[in-house]
Specification:
Belongs to the SUA5 family. It is an enzyme of class 2 (transferase). Pfam families: Sua5_C, Sua5_yciO_yrdC. The chain folds into 2 domains: about 210 residues, DHBP synthase (Alpha-Beta Complex), CATH 3.90.870; about 80 residues, 3-Layer(aba) Sandwich (Rossmann fold). The protein is built from 10 helices and 15 strands. The strands form 3 sheets. Strands 2-3-7-4-6-5-9-10-11 form a 9-stranded mixed beta sheet, sandwiched between helices. Strands 12-15-13-14 form a 4-stranded parallel beta sheet, with helices on one face. Strands 1-8 form a two-stranded parallel sheet. A hairpin with a 2-residue loop joins strand 9 and strand 10. Helix 9 runs parallel beside helix 10. The two termini are about 30 Å apart.
Length: about 325
C-alpha cells in the first residue's frame, strides 16, 4: 500500500520523499488545487509508462505537463503573445495552455502522445515547490483509474490506486474540485478544448477574444478529458432530473426540492444556496458517495450552464455518455 505523508504536518519530509520517488522513476499522487494528480518525470519514458499502466489509460490520450513557473515552461514550449498574457494572468492556477513544443525538448513523446504540442500548467501550492525541487516537469493526469471519477482527496486516491503506487502526498481536499480549463491559440484564434476550473469569461477578458467552442466532438484527441465517456462512476448517470425514481441516488443543486427525493438511496446537494464554486468543489466527492450507496442510477438535477457550470456540465455529460 502507498505511504501517505501529511504535507501540513511535515512539508520537508513530503518534499524529500516526493523527489526521491520521482527520481526513482515512480508515479506518485500529488495534490493540486483542481484535483489530485498521478505524477511522474515527464522526461523519463519508463516513468511515464507507469502512469499509463497504473491508470489503465489509452496511450493516444496526452498528459498535461506541470511546471514550477513560467521560466521553466518557456524552456519546453513556444509562447505566442495571447498565451503569454494568459499565463501571466492566471498562473499558477487552473489553466492549461496547449503550446508548440520547442525543438529538441526533453519532454518525452509518450507524455504528448506523439503530438508536436504540449499542455502545460503551473499548479498552486506545494506541488509547484515539489517540481522546483525536482528540477524537471511532471506529467500528471488525474489520480484515478482511467475514465472514472477524479480524486479530490488523498482518501479517494488511496481507495482507487493505493495498492498500485508507492506514495500519496496529502494536502487535504482540493479547493477547486474540477480539472483545469484547457485552451489553445491557433491561427490567432482561441479555442476551448476543455472547460474547467477557470471560467471562460475570465479568459476572454484577458485575451480580448472570444473562446471558440467545438460544435461536435473532434476525432483528434488534442488534450486530456476529450474522450466522449469519462469521469464515470459505476452507476449509470441521469441528467436534468426534476423528479426521482424510487431507489435512485440524488445529487441536487440549489434550494429547489426534487420530487421524490424522500425515496432516494442517498440525497446530496452540491450547493443548497446555488453557488457554482461550491458545487464544483463537491462534485467528484459527491459522485463517489452516491456511487457507494449501491444505487444503480445517480440522478442529477439541472445545473446552470454558465461560469463554472460549463465545466460541471461537461463532466456530467461525459459521465452519462455510453460506455464501451
Amino acid at each position: 500500500m502507498a505511504r501517505i505523508i501529511d504535507i501540513k504536518a511535515d512539508r520537508q519530509t513530503a518534499l524529500e520523499a516526493g523527489c526521491a520517488a520521482l527520481a526513482g522513476g515512480f508515479a506518485i499522487a500529488i495534490p493540486t488545487e483542481t484535483v489530485y494528480g498521478l505524477a511522474a518525470d515527464a522526461t523519463n519514458p519508463a516513468a511515464i509508462t507507469r502512469i499509463y499502466e497504473t491508470k489503465g489509460r489509452p496511450r493516444f490520450n496526452p498528459l498535461i505537463c506541470h511546471m514550477a513557473d513560467l521560466a521553466m515552461a518557456e524552456a519546453y514550449a513556444e509562447f505566442d503573445p495571447i498565451s503569454r498574457a494568459l499565463a501571466e494572468a492566471f498562473w499558477p492556477g487552473p489553466l492549461t495552455l496547449v503550446l508548440p513544443l520547442k525543438s529538441g525538448t526533453a519532454i518525452h513523446a509518450l507524455a504528448t502522445a506523439g503530438l508536436d504540442s504540449v499542455g502545460i500548467r503551473i499548479p498552486k501550492g506545494f506541488t509547484g515547490d515539489l517540481i522546483r525541487a525536482f528540477g524537471r516537469p511532471l506529467a500528471a493526469p488525474s489520480a484515478n483509474t482511467s475514465g472514472k471519477v477524479s480524486a479530490t482527496s488523498a482518501a479517494h486516491v488511496e481507495a482507487d490506486l493505493g495498492a498500485k503506487i508507492p506514495l500519496i502526498l496529502d494536502a487535504g481536499a482540493s479547493t477547486v474540485g474540477v480539472e483545469s480549463t484547457i485552451v489553445k491559440v491557433e491561427n490567432g484564434e482561441l479555442r476551448l478544448l476543455r472547460p474547467g476550473g477557470l471560467p471562460a469569461k475570465e479568459i476572454e477578458r484577458v485575451a480580448g477574444k472570444r473562446l471558440l467552442r467545438s460544435k461536435k466532438a473532434s476525432a483528434a484527441i488534442e488534450a486530456p478529458g476529450m474522450l466522449a465517456s469519462h469521469y464515470a462512476p459505476g452507476a449509470a448517470v441521469r441528467l436534468e432530473a426534476t423528479a426521482l425514481e424510487p431507489g435512485e441516488a440524488l445529487i441536487a443543486f440549489g434550494p429547489d426540492r426534487v420530487a421524490g427525493a424522500e425515496q432516494a438511496a442517498i440525497a446530496l446537494n452540491l450547493s443548497p444556496r446555488g453557488d457554482l464554486s461550491e458545487a464544483a468543489a463537491n462534485l467528484f466527492d459527491y459522485m463517489k458517495k452516491a456511487d457507494a450507496s449501491g444505487a444503480a442510477v445517480i440522478a442529477f438535477s439541472p445545473i446552470p450552464d454558465e461560469g463554472l457550470g460549463e465545466a460541471i456540465n461537461d463532466r456530467l455529460r461525459r459521465a452519462a455518455a455510453p460506455r464501451e
